[in-house]
Amino acid sequence: MFFSKYSASGNDFILMHTFRYNEDSYSNLAKQICHRQEGIGADGLIVLKPHREYDFEWEFYNADGSVAEMCGNGSRAAGMYARDLGLAGNSQKFLSKAGVIGVEIEGDWAESALSKAEVLKKDICEFGKNWWLINTGVPHLVCEDLEIMGLNKEDLRFLRHKYNANINIASCREDRVLARTFERGVEDETLACGTGMAAMFYYLLLANKVKNPCLFNPASKEDLYLREENGKLYLKGKVRKICDFIYL
To answer: 20 to 30 A Cα–Cα from 234, which one of 100, 106, 138, 182?
Structure first.
């Protein structure tokens, strides 16, 4: 089978497409191919399928084989992959389990129009910090903390399982926001999380602590720009193709 690997702001994804309308599950393949030691290694597997109304439909699998409704950086990687292979143009719409996602491609930059954010719960007290639970396609537990590394990985893992959500810590600086994420499905910290940064941005925007648009730097140290317009959140950053390969 033919695959490509892309990196979007530090999140790496393996992508493939099929021209068949099918209900096949790629969960086992995702677990095998995304394994860092025994496979190729990636944060997730993205499968593009044909759709009669939109440019394509996608299925997103986490590295552990579980299905995710949405992935912000994954959507940007999928858009670049579709453009590079001629499956779609520079302006795209595709169907995800979180709804219709728009992607705009310009050179090696890709911007995704995410689904509207929803605050699920406010003022959750954990480890002496105030957290909000926000859905930006998938649920995220977010807080602001100048000491971005104040909680250890086991603390983040505890919160991830207690709230069944990705865990995100935002640290506001003078001209940008630093971001840290522990992702479910990967079950570890990742170099970036698009919907996680969208949740952090929305949380900080409601608190009047950031400007619109706003620059974010995740652990990968790459620049991502978040903005809000008419209630929708937009995520923009560079996408890089790493390689093509055949997996036997």
So the answer is: 182
